[in-house]
Design a protein that fits this description.
By secondary structure, the protein is of the alpha/beta class. The chain has helices at residues 40-46, 82-106, 121-130, 176-187, 206-220, and strands at residues 13-14, 24-29, 53-56, 62-63, 72-73, 114-119, 139-143, 162-167, 192-197. Strands 1-3-2-6-7-8-9 form a seven-stranded mixed β-sheet, sandwiched between helices. A two-stranded antiparallel ribbon has the order 4-5.
Length: 226
């Protein structure tokens, strides 16, 4: 896919709560059938810990094939098997890469000030893209998702720390995917921290928001514009 053929993404944004220039950038990726507005409140929850961060939650590039339901997708889901996840995430990666490059340029930031956060299908994109950026982001967080291509990690950059948060009661993306992702990432020498939360289904609760906020604060504090 050439650059001219790659769709342009956009979505809701939050400027730094401090009122000053952005020193960090947090890109939040929604799940299948949702849009950026569905997750931008995560940024609001984390602004107190990261007052110098800009947050953006882009809408995925594709509409759902059944338009009556609304919402968007990073890639189509029909078979819902590992090969479909891997192929779909690989195909969508250039769209997200170009968006991230543009956002870093907007704020005059480099990758050391970048964090990617994703939920469900957005977590797949967080891992697919974030682990393969030329310069590793400061932090990657995946909620209720999975790692595409667990057997194809030879091209990843292992320097980004990863947080995985998954509900034990998740009946959409079963929590064994968290175990599989952790195992594969550890074998690839990635620093990964996994939390499986009891009583939680396919969603993000207050416990998950707290874990994510602490992780971002730990890895983004002090990151500045270039």
């Amino acid at each position: 896919m050439t650059s001219s053929m790659v769709p342009t993404l956009d979505g809701p944004r939050l400027q730094p709560a401090s009122g000053g220039p952005a020193r960090q950038l947090v890109v939040i990726l929604h799940g299948y059938g949702a849009d950026g507005a569905d997750l931008i409140d995560l940024g609001r929850a984390w602004q107190g810990q990261l007052p110098d961060a800009a947050f953006v939650a882009p809408d995925a590039p594709e509409t759902l094939p059944f338009e009556a339901l609304g919402g968007r997708q990073w890639f189509a889901l029909s078979e819902r098997d590992p090969s479909e996840y891997r192929i779909g995430a690989e195909a969508a990666k250039p769209v997200l890469d170009r968006f991230i490059d543009a956002e870093l340029g907007r704020y005059s930031l480099d990758e050391t000030a970048l964090a990617l956060v994703g939920f469900s299908q957005g977590a797949m994109m967080t891992f697919q893209c974030g682990l393969r950026r030329k310069t590793p982001p400061a932090a990657l967080i995946g909620y209720s998702g999975l790692l595409p291509g667990t057997d194809r990690l030879g091209d990843i950059n292992t320097s980004s720390p990863v947080l995985i948060v998954h509900g034990v009661e998740d009946d959409v993306v079963p929590n064994y995917h968290a175990d599989a992702a952790e195992k594969a990432l550890r074998q690839a020498d990635v620093d990964v921290n996994t939390h499986q939360l009891s009583g939680l289904g396919h969603s993000i609760d207050e416990r998950g928001m707290v874990l994510g906020g602490r992780f971002l604060e730990q890895h983004l504090s002090g990151r500045r514009a270039r």
